[in-house]
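Hello Y.,

Per our agreement to keep a running log of every chain we model this quarter, I'm adding this entry. I've kept the format consistent with earlier entries: sequence first, then predicted structure.
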Amino acid sequence: MENTNIDQSRRRFLTTAATVVGGVGAVAASVPFVSNMSPSAKTKAIGAPVEVDISNLEPGGRLIEKWQGKPVWILRRTKEMLKDISSLDSVVSDPKSDESAQPEYAKNQFRALKEEFLVVIGICTHLGCSPSFVLKGEGASISVDWKGGFFCPCHGSRFDLAGRVFKGVPAPRNLVIPPYKFISPTRLLIGDDSEAV
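Predicted structure for the entry above:
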């Protein structure tokens, strides 16, 4: 014999409560899986693009980031630095960057998308040492007419503020320019230059 006195409102309440609890449980169980889908710091270091905030980078200042396990220097050049770069074409080995590694948009005198900002891998092209950043006025021991740039103390290679190698030093090529783009006026993306602006 069937019971016809079933409380329908109680049944709806229990069904709704079970559905809500089950849904919350499913979401909670999926959180670890979804969070593991975003790239880890290790993955980013291996090769994923790295986003950099340059809003606080003062003229003449430098930031150091890591991309693919390599130091990437971001230098904000002053007007004086840009003028000094222009005066060095006759003393650098590859002034037009014909034999260097850089994206096509950085194959210019300043080796940059925007001449104010140099983005360069901070590894000497001789034996892979990391050169020092030496400003104008601090490099009397490097050269009497030092205009600023990068000096590798290991074997004496010198690079100007565009990463161009000087003549007569062990390093064979200019410093490498990685792919990059500006994703806003104050943010760079290193490792991706699709539709670079």
